[in-house]
Amino acid sequence: MESAVKTVRIIQIAMLVSIAMYVFIGERMAPGPRSASPVLFYAFFW
Q: How far is CA 30 from CA 17, 33, 34, 44, 46, in A?
């Protein structure tokens, strides 16, 4: 039972690290901000 808990804990840590990695890579590879037209902004979010 103790080895199963240890295995689950290792899997949880690995998943958390992979999520953090995806966030970091996504933030670095994301395109820069665009200069969108205010008309489009108001049309979508009004």
A: 20, 9, 12, 22, 26
